[in-house]
Amino acid sequence: MTLSRLFFLMMLAVSTAISTAYAADESLVIGRMKVSIWPEYDTEGILVVYEGRFADKDLFPRQVTFVLPKDVDELTDACSLSPGGEHFCQLYKVTQREDRAETRMQLPYADFFIDFQYYPFERRAQKELVYPIRSLYPVKILEVNVQPPLRAKDISVEPAPDRTIEAKGFTQHIYEMRDLPAGDLMTVKLRYEKDDDKPSVEIKYGGGMKKKDSTRANIGRALLLLTGVVLLGGIAWLRWKGQKSSKVERDGGDQ
After folding, report:
1. Residue 241 pLDDT
2. 194, part of any domain
3. Nearest-CA neighbor of 78 among 63, 87, 89?
């Protein structure tokens, strides 16, 4: 077999693999997806939760991609749920696109749970949020839950919700849609006025870490890792120094 023919067969195999992967992605359908959008819930930012299940569980494990708002670069949780309800946290990668961000991860099961915080608000009483909900996959059933913060007034939500409920002291605006194609599913617009920047609830333990606290924690972890590297390097140098001194002493004694 000539070198050129071998190269051609290799390129054909790669091309076939890529085509198969994209075709498989096109076959993915989300059976049910719930998007919760809760501004100023436990931080000064916006808590967003994606949870749901892909329609065909037999296609998993596999890689999937979810669309995020522009400039979101970190997730709080990226999990897959087993049939028994166990959360399996996954590694993920966030890529910035021209008008959005995307996160890609490997899901061992068809059920998913993703949440993150982001901070689009300016420090002023009048707040306005425009949130486009997008999916790279068709969605059979979509539920959207928009929850304005406590102490908010002059609340305006567009489009008009299908229903409004009260839950644990909060007002929640609910949308329900079916058989949506991949792409832009809907855009939610929320306006309200709030005289303070305090979140609705305080969570001392677990999620809800503020952006500045998250940054400080990342710096702390980096410093701890650097300290460990320096310490291990020092120990290795001392051992090498000791072995070198012992070798010199042995060589001197042999003479």
Report:
1. 65
2. yes
3. 89
108, 224: one domain: no
Pairing state of beta strands 139-146 and 30-39? parallel
> With a threshold of 0.90, does the pTM exceed it?
no
Rounded Cα distance, 11 and 242, in Å: 55
Identify the burial level of 159 via C-beta atoms within 10 angstroms of its C-beta, where 0-12 means exposed, 13-18 middle and 19 or more buried: exposed
Ranges of residues in the chain whose predicted pLDDT is under 50: 3-24, 205-225, 229, 248
Q: Classify residue 33 by burial, with Cβ atoms within 10 Å: 0-12, 13-18, 19+.
A: buried
Written as six digits, the tokens of 238 are 């001392």
The three-class DSSP label of residue 211 is helix
Provide the residue type at 27 as one letter: S
Are 51 and 109 in the same domain?
A: yes
pLDDT the model gives residue 215: 40
Q: Where is 14: in which H helix or E strand?
A: helix 3-27
pLDDT of residue 17: 38
For residue 227, which amino acid is it?
A: T
Q: Which amino acid is at 214?
A: S
